[in-house]
Amino acid sequence: MFSKNRSLKNIFFIILILVIADLTLSRCANPRSPTGGPKDTIPPSLISSTPLTGSTNFKEQSITITFSEFINADKLLQNLIITPKTDLRFKHIAKRNILNLKFEDSFSDSTTYSLNFFDGVTDITEKNPAVNLILAFSTGSFIDSMQISGSIKDLLTAQPSKNFIVGLFPLSDSLDFLQHSPTYFTTANDSGRFSLSYVKSAKYRILAFKDENRNLLLDPKEEDHAFTADTLLLYDSIPYLELSSILQNVKPIQLTNHRPVRAYHEFKFSREIDTYEITPDSIYSSIAGEEKDILRLYNPKQFNFGDSSQIILTASDSLSNTITDTVKIVFNEFIRKPAPLTLDLSYEQKILVNNPLYTIKFNKPILTTDYSKFEYKADSTFTLKPDSSTFIWNENKTVLQIQTYINKDSLYSQQLKSITLDTSLLKFLPFDSLEQISPSQGDSIREVIASKSPIEFSISPEAFFSVEGDTSEAKSLTHKKEVKQAYGTLQFTIVTEKPSFKVQLLNSKMTVEYESINNKTPVFIVKPASYSIRILIDTNNDGKWSFGNLLKNEEPEEVYLFPDVIAIRENWIVGEDIEVIF
């Protein structure tokens, strides 16, 4: 009886050992993400491969790669890119830390292949992708050995252009950067640096771009890009490349359609239009649409409804891509009331010593204006009318700018020397000199200077009549008086032989706050903050800075960024000994 019980215990013990062993082996065979502990941030790295990178005379149809940790390759089919391009199909198996690729057909003879894995191989814990995993080998006795290296930074901010695709395109007459993928490519790291090896000796063009949709094709509307205008001659070593990236939609502008719409004739373009011309020029027009890609024509009352008339239309985008077309237009009778005339009034006063600028934007062209309907007011005792000579219209009468004036030097003239001046009011007054101010106005000025009343700029009803016969409603804008003591001064000297340039002060978000043009001793009276100095250099001296154009092989014009950030405080003068040299 004792022997039988002991025998049962032995059997139970053996079964228990087998169960534990099975569970242990199962866990080893099916690795899982560990729980607890610090987050894994280290990507898998390559330990060995067959073939080794740089191998020659490789004739096999399978490739084996061993990594430093367990891997996942579920997205390899979407991410593995083989150059030169090939239609070879393959299957892959990832087991523990080993990846095996099995190709259905043989590689071509005497060819150097480069396999770029992108993010196709990750660890199994945090999905960290292997970085710049590239395997290169040759099926012949010689492996292509040309290489390039460099870095990419944002043209306007100098920040690294990280994770950009850097591609080489064989030079040919049919090269189209918007339709062709690069033959050789790599990925820039987080510092914007890149290196590309095992390239065949030839002539190439280089293009780097932020491949957001991962299709190896540049989408210039959404993806920043960088390039050089020069051809790369990869027959010998070339210097370290420094590329500058910028977002610009270089796709040519196109007229997609045009047709009569309500009381108008509208033209739809493939992108925003910057400038345009219409012949005959008696036709009123305006740019419409949320994307500013619609040109709306108004009947100038010389066309009969339903009759077609021929015009010549020229339109350009911001990159000076231009199209010209001869088209027929038609205006249909539309009996409903037109959309009401609206105006958007805004005010800009960025540099204290400059004169303020009012801007009015209309939703349709303006036919007539009553300049007596405008006035500045500080309180019930002080009212001034602006001079109509300060009104500046754009070409198609849809934007009006009103510049107010005050002569800065006259602030210290004998007439007002006895007054403790607060110049925050005087800059609003529409006078070229104090000689234009009557004695009674002078008294009013003294009263307003002493007061803390805000300044109101108002427009009375019926100041404007549009091309459709409707008129505007009242509009006003009120400013609080600026306090001069709340500003600081930044002044510096520019040392350059460049005749044409624009100086920009940038805030912490690298947005332009203040500008000065062609001034080698700029003085900025600014709100306290930290500023960077950027200078746009008009290299070809045409009066404007150019973004360049990839399709025209024109690089952007030069940009200089002062290396230091400058802090401005109230009532401080900063930068008297600063020299900006470019």
Give the helix level as a range of percent: under 10%
What is the mean pLDDT?
Answer: 84
Shape category: globular
What is the terminal separation in angstroms?
A: 103 Å
Number of helices: 4
Spans of at least 5 consecutive residues whose pLDDT stays below 50 are: 25-31, 406-451
Oligomer category: single chain
Radius of gyration: 35 Å
Please give the domain count.
Answer: 6
Question: Strand content of the residues, in percent?
Answer: 35-45%
The main β sheet shows up as: 5 strands, antiparallel
The total of beta strands comes to 44
Structural class: mainly beta
Summarize the structure.
This protein is mainly beta and 582 residues long. Helix content is 8%, strand content 38%.
Summarize the SSE layout with pairings.
Elements: H1 2-29, E1 46-50, E2 62-67, E3 71-72, H2 76-79, E4 81-83, E5 90-95, E6 98-103, E7 112-116, E8 122-123, E9 134-138, E10 146-154, E11 165-170, E12 184-187, E13 193-199, E14 202-209, E15 225-227, E16 232-234, E17 241-245, E18 255-261, E19 264-269, E20 275-279, E21 284-288, E22 294-298, E23 308-316, E24 322-330, E25 343-348, E26 357-362, E27 366-369, E28 374-379, E29 382-384, E30 391-393, E31 399-403, H3 423-426, H4 439-450, E32 455-459, E33 464-466, E34 475-479, E35 488-491, E36 493-495, E37 501-506, E38 512-517, E39 523-526, E40 529-537, E41 559-561, E42 566-568, E43 573-574, E44 579-581
Parallel strand pairs: 10-17, 35-43, 36-44
Antiparallel strand pairs: 1-2, 2-6, 3-8, 4-7, 5-6, 7-9, 10-13, 11-12, 11-14, 14-15, 14-16, 18-19, 19-22, 20-23, 21-22, 23-24, 25-26, 26-31, 27-33, 28-29, 28-32, 30-31, 32-34, 35-39, 37-38, 37-40, 40-41, 40-42
